[in-house]
Predict the 3D structure of the following.
Amino acid sequence: MKKLIIIGGYGNGTVVQSTVEDINEEKQQWELLGFLNDNEKEPINGYPVLGPIDKETVQNYLKDSNVYFFYSLISVKLNHKFLFKLIELEIPKNRFATLIHPTAVVSKYAKIGYGVCIQPFVSVGPNTSIGNFIQIFAQSLIGHGAKLDDYSYVANNACIGADVHLKEGAYLGTNATTLEYVTLGKWSITGIGAVVLKNVDDYAKVVGSPARVIGSTK
Ligand SMILES: CC(C)(COP(=O)(O)OP(=O)(O)OC[C@H]1O[C@@H](n2cnc3c(N)ncnc32)[C@H](O)[C@@H]1OP(=O)(O)O)[C@@H](O)C(=O)NCCC(=O)NCCS
């Protein structure tokens, strides 16, 4: 069985933990060793905190070739300004786990990278391309031909139209919907419930229906 360490904790990290447990219930695949976390010392949902999020701790675990990581610290608050945390750990890409909840429906014609977590009841259509370090939360729909670049983020119940492109770090909020073919710019944020009818610029923050710019994430 492969071993897994989740980098993060309460919040997205525990969502990933739940998915791992559901995967294991179907077929034992992962031994969840615990979390790396800078703030918590006590166990998180019964799993130990193995140490802080630093290179030394990570490199020690990497010596065991059966250990994989999941980086759960990408969120609306922890965006590009915190990415250095991931980069400075120097974990090879192929040592990040990709975790797909047993209830998700993922087309066999979808390409999926490293460090991706696909949550319950998500649908990923054919000819989609899902990059690395991406979380797709419960009940979202990814239309056929959509392209999600690294670090992009799909909150629960979001609906991505066909052939939509989420550029690096683009964040799509809960219940947001996009028209087909639009592009969400690099590290842009689309708020909850937005209806996106046209391209969103890099670093723009948009809300509403139709979505309008209210600020910047820079
Ligand atoms: C878009 C978002 C990031 C804006 O956050 P913010 O920069 O802190 O903006 P504020 O809360 O200061 O709001 C600024 C204005 O936009 C409005 N606004 C914010 N989010 C909105 C939304 N989703 N839809 C419509 N209007 C919204 C506010 O009412 C406020 O209007 P006002 O100036 O007339 O009072 C945030 O509201 C959001 O939707 N985050 C996504 C959350 C999510 O999906 N989480 C995943 C599940 S946990």
